[in-house]
Amino acid sequence: DAGVTQSPTHLIKTRGQHVTLRCSPISGHKSVSWYQQVLGQGPQFIFQYYEKEERGRGNFPDRFSARQFPNYSSELNVNALLLGDSALYLCASSLSGTQDEKLFFGSGTQLSVL
Amino acid sequence: GDSVTQMEGPVTLSEEAFLTINCTYTATGYPSLFWYVQYPGEGLQLLLKATKADDKGSNKGFEATYRKETTSFHLEKGSVQVSDSAVYFCALLYNFNKFYFGSGTKLNVKP
Fold it and tell me: With contact defined as beta carbons under 8 Å apart, do B63 and B48 qualify?
């Protein structure tokens, strides 16, 4: 079975542009979470979605948005990109997003903003 | 607010040495605690977890005990291998849907 897949693997954008990152969860998983990992730091929680509804949001500006589709895949959108948005964006999936449930992480999308 | 603090790296050890990576946390309530590992070019993988005080998580020779009195969850391994070289993240899960990760500790194991 495929694990969590993310696309693209690498992306280069310029300031002010918009970006869309995609994530396909493990088959049967209904919860998807997004994390931002800046170089040298641990991942920071951005969003969690379950059954197409937002279940949690971290301390990120409104320029960050996400959605989940009926097939449980997800998109993370970032508008008006800033240099500080350069990071590895990780997607994680789980069966239902409940406490203590195991998260499975994808390899991430490396975003560089110039 | 909730947070996780772990020792800074890099940590460089010789093969078969004893490993300790310190992790302390700040949280209200009773979070679950985790160690994740990130190998070069790969995503995060769950290494072990503990869901309540005095629980010991273990996997692949690694162990960590949930110490509520010292708010700690230190990672240990008795004999490291070159293949253990990676970045290790301590994490706290609270309110069932959000992980707080530490900043990571890079481990280099030399043959």
Answer: yes
